[in-house]
């Protein structure tokens, strides 16, 4: 198998030894800040990236897609340039822009590289967040970057840029949200897709204990149970996915270290919901757990 990297020894071991325990896996990636729901999730992402494939992380908001991308860049010991997509994303946001500068008191035009050109020239990771928020007419510029060619013609300098060894792309997508558009098949086919589920159970408990101010174990267990019910309700269509966001739950745990749990849940979760029906549902659920 040809790889795009000289992988650190621990990662090579991980690819070969699929029998590692989850505790060992957590120890391996603890500095990256993301504990995957299963070993396969991490192994599959590492395998795809080591082969030079692009990875598309798909899942609801607040499941840790960005943190997972950061963990992967840490494991590969690669810096990561990022793009935050929106309807305003244009070629300059991707490639860079020209500006006036001075050299020896003479005014000159300089090109300031954007995240795509910077990552390609440095041979590092490129992260494209919420890729389906970008206008469809903007993304074809990246087609050559995302396929076997790993090249792009800079529209501002007419320079042909070929990515250095080590360049790889991770993108993230939230499906079905306002402002998003379906990815066309040509773009989607350039990625290996990894579905990122919500963290639950003991893994969520460990995340709360390691990354929030909440130290009360009883309250931590209650928040884990609350999260499970919120995720279940969201899967049944009773709540929007925003209500089940792990990011929002961690905010509630932080606040709960100082203010009462019901108020913490109201500020971090309930008040973000638009429909009064959903707000009442979450309030009743919180009152059930935190009496």
From TrEMBL:
It comes from Virgibacillus siamensis. Gene3D superfamilies: P-loop containing nucleotide triphosphate hydrolases. Residues 51-197 form the AAA+ ATPase domain. Pfam families: AAA_5. This is MoxR family ATPase. SUPFAM superfamilies: P-loop containing nucleoside triphosphate hydrolases. InterPro entries: AAA+_ATPase, ATPase_dyneun-rel_AAA, CbbQ/NirQ/NorQ/GpvN, P-loop_NTPase.
């Amino acid at each position: 198998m040809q790889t795009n990297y000289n992988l650190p020894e621990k990662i090579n071991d991980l690819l070969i030894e699929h029998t590692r325990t989850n505790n060992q896996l957590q120890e391996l990636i603890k500095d990256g800040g993301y504990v995957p729901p299963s070993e396969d999730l991490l192994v599959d992402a590492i395998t795809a990236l080591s082969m030079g494939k692009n990875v598309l992380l798909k899942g609801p908001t607040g499941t840790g897609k960005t943190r997972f991308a950061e963990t992967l860049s840490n494991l590969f010991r690669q810096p990561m340039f990022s793009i935050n997509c929106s309807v305003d994303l244009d070629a300059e946001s991707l490639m860079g822009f020209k500006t006036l500068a001075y050299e020896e008191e003479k005014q000159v035009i300089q090109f300031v590289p954007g995240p795509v050109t910077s990552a390609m020239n440095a041979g590092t990771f490129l992260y494209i967040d919420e890729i389906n928020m970008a206008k469809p007419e903007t993304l074809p510029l990246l087609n050559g970057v995302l396929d076997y060619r790993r090249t792009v013609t800079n529209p501002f300098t007419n320079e042909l840029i070929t990515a250095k060894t080590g360049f790889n792309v991770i993108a993230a997508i939230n499906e079905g949200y306002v402002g998003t558009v379906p990815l066309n098949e040509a773009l989607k086919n350039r990625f290996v897709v990894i579905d990122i589920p919500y963290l639950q159970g003991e893994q969520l408990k460990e995340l709360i204990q390691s990354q929030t101010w909440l130290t009360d174990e009883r309250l931590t267990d209650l928040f884990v149970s609350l999260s499970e019910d919120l995720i279940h309700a969201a899967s049944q269509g009773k709540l929007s996915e925003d209500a089940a966001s792990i990011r929002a739950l961690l905010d509630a745990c932080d606040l709960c270290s100082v203010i009462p749990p019901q108020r913490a849940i109201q500020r971090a979760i309930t008040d973000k919901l638009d429909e009064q029906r959903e707000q009442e549902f979450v309030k009743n659920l919180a009152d059930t757990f935190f009496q």
